[in-house]
Amino acid sequence: MSRSDPPISSTPGIRHLPPDTSPALLAGVLAEEGAVIVDRLADPATIDALFAEMEPWIAATPLGADEFAGRFTRRTGGLIARSPTARGLVTHPLITATVDLVLGHLTTYQLHLTQVIEIGPGNPAQAVHRDQWAFDFFPFPPGYEVQCNTIWAGDDFTAENGATRLVPRSHLMEDRLRLDHDRTVPAEMDKGSVLVYTGSLYHSGGENRTIGPRRGINITYSAGFLRQEENQYLSVPPETARELPEDLLRLMGYRRGAYALGYVDDLRDPLDVLLGRDSGADPGFSPR
User: Fold this and answer.
1) CATH of the domain at 152
2) What stretch of H or E contains 218?
């Protein structure tokens, strides 16, 4: 820790840091603990604006189809297309600078998913899992991180209303464990705070024992050589994508991953194709 870094505060099992902390400190805590909370990184008014934009989509989202998705839980994606405010969370400089460090061993990383998770009253705790199991349960080498994830608190997160539950330091444990909820601790935090955790951390959504919903904003980042969980190219229509900043488009996947993954036809860069630059072909040519 440098002299300019603020002191670390903590609640049992999970460290809390202030919003002016450094990316290096955040990445260091993630390497040691697997998770960290940055308190009040977003202003509550920003969170309110996001939910005002997303409200029609949330209301139209069906409840989960199984116990893992949550039968009293709504999971609403497409945040980049549907919420201009959400774009600022996706590209928040502290978060992206931290992801740069956590996933710095990779040639490229990309946006993996954007999702509002609204856990309704009576929803039981989710099964304890690792997010990286989404990649067909592939056993990545211990210590080789392929995801860095965030959950922004849309409400105050408490043990009673379904705060995300973590198994501290479980990113250091072996894979495919079946862990009980008594191993977990709640990631309690204020509205506008953000939980940052690795894809190898064991965690779950908590049980909501209150009379109101618990809302969180799940934004995750993954290795550029892996398939995205949320298809950004269809979730965000091309006409909307063309109006977005180029740094956001690259993060969404409009660039080559690793050396050459994701190029278009004659090794063209996907961002150039999207924006109509440097076509490299006769405009009248239409491939069949």
Assistant:
1) 2.60.120.620
2) strand 214-223
Sheet holding 14-17, edge to edge: 9-11, 14-17, 35-38, 194-198, 147-153, 214-223, 109-119, 73-77
**pTM listed for this prediction:** 0.92
Q: In the chain, how many domains are there?
A: 1
Residues 6 or more apart whose Cβ sits within 8 Å of residue 141:
none
Residue 268 lies inside a defined structural domain of this protein: no
Produce one character per residue of 19-37: b if its CB has 16 or more CB atoms within 10 Å, e if not.
eebbbebbbbbbeebbbbb
Asked if residue 278 belongs to a domain, the reply is no
Please list the pLDDT of the chain residue by residue as tens digits (288 residues): 443 454 444 456 799 999 999 999 999 999 999 999 999 999 999 999 999 999 999 999 999 999 999 999 999 999 999 999 999 999 999 999 999 999 999 999 999 999 999 999 999 999 999 999 999 999 999 999 999 999 999 999 999 999 999 999 999 999 999 999 999 999 999 999 999 999 999 999 999 999 999 999 999 999 999 999 999 999 999 999 999 999 999 999 999 988 899 999 999 999 999 999 975 544 333 333
| Residue 200 maps to a domain | yes
- Domain of residue 173: give its range: 9-235
DSSP code string of 146-208: -EEEEEEESS-B-TTBT--EE-TTGGGSPSS----GGG-EE--B-TT-EEEEETTS-EEPPPB
Residues 141 and 14: their CA atoms lie apart, in Å, by: 25
What are the percentages of helix, strand and coil residues in the chain, rounded to 5? 30, 25, 50
DSSP state of 124: P
Residue 249 maps to a domain: no
Q: Report the distance separating Cα 208 and Cα 229, nearest Å.
A: 26
